[in-house]
Design brief:
The structure is a homodimer. Chain A has 13 helices and 12 strands. The mean pLDDT of chain A is about 95. In chain A, β1, α1 and β2 form a beta-alpha-beta unit. In chain A, the strands form 2 sheets. Chain A has a 7-stranded mixed sheet with strand order 4-3-2-1-5-6-7, sandwiched between helices. In chain A, strands 10-9-8-11-12 form a 5-stranded antiparallel sheet. Chain A is α/β, with parallel strands linked by helices and about 350 residues long. Helix content of chain A is about 40%, strand content about 20%. At the A-B interface, α1, α6, β12 and α13 of A face α1, α6, β12 and α13 of B. β12 of chain A pairs antiparallel with β12 of chain B, so a sheet runs across the interface.
């Protein structure tokens, strides 16, 4: 006999659709391995929802994915409907709400759902990087998991929480957690100009449509704040200062104008690379979190530093603690991508479902 | 309101005592964070048990640790008693049985406890590396966790299980999982003779009292089998051939005689190191697990291989899968030590306790 777990998924973009496919493909194996069966109660996006009040059948889910692929809203689907608020779809017994949107303003609704006994799994960083009050409400009684927000499918949050649960004490997290910025560092060290490297990365789809969304460091800063708050450091976002790669006069122009003016930055980065090389050091975009404070920016690292060996788009997380003091605990690998991000969310769903059904 | 979780701990050696200290220190934080309270129902060793039928109080536990430090059996303690079988101490409702012994023959009792609805957490590798039938019974319904058996406190088993749960497919695990043998590889590359390196490692306490227990590769082979079985590969131990560091004629002599004769091996290892260097390769003791088969032994690796960067006693686990195909997922850090091993067990206890109480 297996127990039923209902999922309410917010967001049906690339990660959301990959997640649906993983859930459908693994349902039988999970039932056998853990004794629970995952069912979709609803799929929700900005344009509406698919919700019947019962478990959605495979055909309905498949149709919804096709509708989304063709860039129509879910409300356009047979059985789909417009929606003011996804909270009206919540069942009375505990379900798992999955936020794989990139939307702002989700935190209030999610925190209320947590207070009502539901569980939450996030790939969306925003609900965790608003005010500390919102973070605290959302993570009350450990009801929310968010592995995919920092390292996609890499075991980062779970590792940190396990260390701290057992009484280990954080000395320092050092991390390279932007594949895009990691690629730029490698390209600069290979002698490319910054403008050429940014152009290549953009044309390969490794940057956001506006590369300044990566180059601002804002995404890394949000990840650093999530690591800090997970470590029990009660900080606001302003406590994590970051260094953008571009000067402020390039912040408010159009994307095309920005791309045209990137060569203005080339000389500065050439000098930084030459200086690092002269010091026998490597240039990396590093987030550092310690109990005393955090920083995010370009750093010169000695060749024996764990982050110095990093090449290309890989992410790396180095945890130095009371117990891992001489040699850190290091996790490394691709930290972005639709499939691995969905797998990170999936891992959190399984862990949550095991909790909801574990007293078998 | 918190719920009570009872622990029955088998083994009160170094790891066992460190674990008791961690449980006692973290009890209040876990109650606040997860809503459960851990209680020791019994501490058991070969010499007897401390068991009152209720939660052991802190004073009784403290006294038991002192008794053990002074190398007396638990039966010698006030409240302690001799014991034929720890299974007579099991309560009727689900508890967590922790095996931090290195004892053989535990698998039958543990599997029976699992069948009766109890959960198991292991640092002891032996129950997992007996027959496949025993492994299957013990891990039925995912009732047994065993993170500490392979990487001590490193997230290895959980990472592998999460990948596979989400439908990722294993291509290859490559791992260096003996700190002792890793140290020997580094020392050989630094120009030391094997006999000198073994002597140093032994005098620093980095080897077992009989260094052949490390040099046989048997411990690495058991870990490789656990990784394979966790990956769903239904192998017996004989499917994982290993290469000992010493010739068979040195297998059955006394430890002192063995230590005296280690210089006989020096020339062979000098040649291996020289050959690797001539090929611009690194010498590492590597376990490889693929769906097609496994091997454990000294390998020459190109400098760009993830394991080539490893120095000293660190462990490293590299997972190449369907989704992590171009760049592997890598976990690295100290893979032995009393405190980090106890922390690995502790993480499994917390995950299990969250399951047993998670439908709050």
């Amino acid at each position: 006999m297996t127990r039923e777990i209902f999922l309410l998924q917010l967001g049906t973009g690339g990660v959301g659709r990959a997640l649906v496919a993983q859930v459908q493909a693994q349902r039988a194996l999970l039932a056998e391995r853990y004794g629970f069966t995952l069912h979709y109660l609803a799929l929700v996006d900005r344009g509406g929802a698919v919700h019947t009040g019962q478990a959605l059948d495979d055909q309905t889910i498949q149709t919804a994915l096709v509708v989304k692929e063709s860039r129509q809203p879910l409300a356009a689907l047979a059985g789909g409907r417009a929606l003011d608020d996804w909270r009206t779809l919540l069942p009375t017994s505990a379900c798992i709400i999955i936020d794989v949107t990139a939307a702002a303003g989700m935190e209030t609704g999610l925190a209320e759902a947590v207070a009502a006994g539901h569980r939450v799994v996030l790939a969306n960083k925003r609900p965790l990087t608003g005010t500390l009050t919102d973070f605290t409400r959302l993570t009350a009684r450990s009801a929310t998991r968010y592995e995919a927000t920092v390292g996609a499918g890499l075991p980062v949050i779970a590792t940190l929480q396990t260390l701290l649960d057992s009484g280990d004490t954080l000395s320092r997290i050092e991390a390279s957690m932007s594949g895009t910025l990691g690629y730029l560092c490698s390209a600069l060290e290979d002698g490319q100009s910054l403008s050429a490297a940014v152009g290549t990365a953009r044309s390969r789809g490794w940057t956001e449509p506006d590369p300044r969304d990566d180059l601002s460091g804002a995404d890394v800063t949000r990840k650093a704040l999530i690591l800090a708050r997970t470590s029990g450091l009660n900080w606001e976002l302003s406590a994590v200062p970051s260094e953008p790669w571009f000067p402020s006069e390039l912040a408010d122009i159009t994307v095309d104008a920005f791309m045209e003016r990137t060569p203005e930055m080339d000389r500065h980065y050439q000098e930084l690379v030459a200086q690092a090389r002269a010091n026998n050091r490597r240039l990396r975009y590093v987030a550092t979190v310690t109990p005393e404070g955090a920083s995010v920016g370009l750093r010169e690292l000695p060749p024996e530093h764990p982050l110095a060996a990093l090449r290309g788009t890989d992410n790396l997380f180095s945890f130095t603690t009371g117990r891992y003091s001489e040699q850190p605990l290091v996790v490394r690998g691709p930290g972005a991508g639709v499939e691995v991000t969905a797998a990170g969310v999936f891992g959190d769903i399984v862990a949550t479902a095991r909790e909801l059904t574990g007293d078998r």
